[in-house]
From TrEMBL:
Organism placement in taxonomy: Bacteria, Pseudomonadati, Bacteroidota, Cytophagia, Cytophagales
Entry protein name: Sialate O-acetylesterase
GO terms assigned for molecular function: sialate O-acetylesterase activity
Keyword Nucleotide-binding: no
InterPro entries associated with the record: Ig-like_fold, SASA, SGNH_hydro_sf, SIAE, TonB_box_CS
Gene3D superfamilies registered for this protein in UniProt: Immunoglobulins (2.60.40.10), SGNH hydrolase (3.40.50.1110)
Coiled-coil regions listed: none
Protein's organism: Hymenobacter chitinivorans DSM 11115
Amino acid sequence: MRISRLLTSAFLLTLTYSAQANVTLPALIADNMVLQQKSTVALWGWAEAGETVSVTASWQKAPVNATADAAGNWLVRVPTGQAGGPYTIRFQGRNELTVRNVLLGEVWLCSGQSNMAFSVSKKPNSGSYTGVINEAEVVPKASYPAIRMFTVKNTVANEPQRDTQGQWQVCSPQTVGEFSAVAYFFAQEIHEHTRLPIGLINSTWGGTPAESWTRKDVLEQDPDFRPILRRYERGLTTFEQDQATYKQQLAEFQQERAANPQTARMAPVAPVGVTSNKSPYKLYNGMIRPLIPYTLRGVLWYQGENNADRAYQYRRLFPALIQSWRQEWQQPEMPFYFVQIAPHRSQNPEIREAQLLTLQTVPRTGMAVITDWGDSLDIHPRNKQVVGHRLAQWALAKDYGAKKTVYSGPIYHSMKVEAGGQVRLRFDYAAGGLQARNGPLREFTIAGPDSVFRPAQARIEGNSVVVWNEQVKQPVAVRFAWRAIPNPNFYNAAGLPATPFRTDQWKLKTQGLL
């Protein structure tokens, strides 16, 4: 028995030493991956401390060497040329690894909650966020071997993780069903315009707030964000009791919905426990940190629904997330394009304003407006092709040289009160004129000094809109599409919808909620 135990111990020690000695790679650095073209990309992994790792890319003449530090970490930076491939990369230390079918192209991180996670094909028992409206048409045509997607495993982590799980999938009719639909339609359009390979990193989880994707120290260091952490810590102390109450409320809600599927009452909200995907900073730890420093072209983001109840705070939280990610990737000008929340009964206009303000104040951002494609009863509108298209317009214009591409609908610029109680509104992105579709302009309201908003008449005059209400003799403010479920019909000549807006600075319902 003693000899057996000694042999077993020796075998385990051999395994441990072998594991330490072997060069290993993160899940992202694997067959079928796409690396950012015309840049210097980061390649990294682990080995025994002090071990020399030689990295040879088949598009390079000479290898690049690195030495593993005391913790076994190593990293090299390899120049990349123009898009192309397939290439191989050989990693050699005490052992040798070869990564095959590598393309040089454009790499986009696609993140957020369920509307970005929303897959091309319908999945059984998956709720409402799978299956695009034109799935039967899209899937058979999805033969794009130069488009690849890596889907990050859903992971809640207390501490920053060094690796994730997942694999690169080559786009085909057999694989596209699992792709994020918004990301796929974006990539398809960019690829067809540029012929460049496109790599998509899908790091998403439904029902998650922005703070879950934000680094802990970013939340700790800002007085406006510390209440998020305090609320989370308090909730952990009462979690068991809160969970019991939630289960009872959920059962009552499900009974009510079974009796009346069109019930207006919202489902109860589950308490946030230590393993919840709504926990602050833990999705950053488990699903973003392991991706750094994989070199990116930019980020696509579709999130905000779970921050609508604290929309005013999102004015600062969302920009803070963007800034921190850019810092982490050491890419201060990294494009960050996002989707404005669609009309839905749970989404107040304040969350859309917070997103608009991010567009207006954070450089190198873009916003796809989809007020014309919402669903008042389903927070997951199924037409994802229009979303991917509108995101692609920003990228084509800003990053791929399509200078004539119009990428934004009208954005409010200024107002002027004119004779007769009329207000003239001027807009950016109004080149070619403004349009009302299917009847006269809708969704404009106007208020006087009493701050009471009344429905307004509106007409287009060139690149401006004139708004009035006979009852408002001294107008001071105008709002457009300022409600949870607006039904606007205001576009520019390129067919892009105007973003909701307000001209006033009066206090909002979520103001002061932290």
